[in-house]
Amino acid sequence: MPLTLITYDIACPKRLRRVAAQCERFGERVQESVFLAELEPPELRALMAALAKIIRPAVDSVHYTPVCEPDLRLSRGLGLGGAGLARPPGCWVV
Question: pTM value?
Answer without folding.
Answer: 0.80
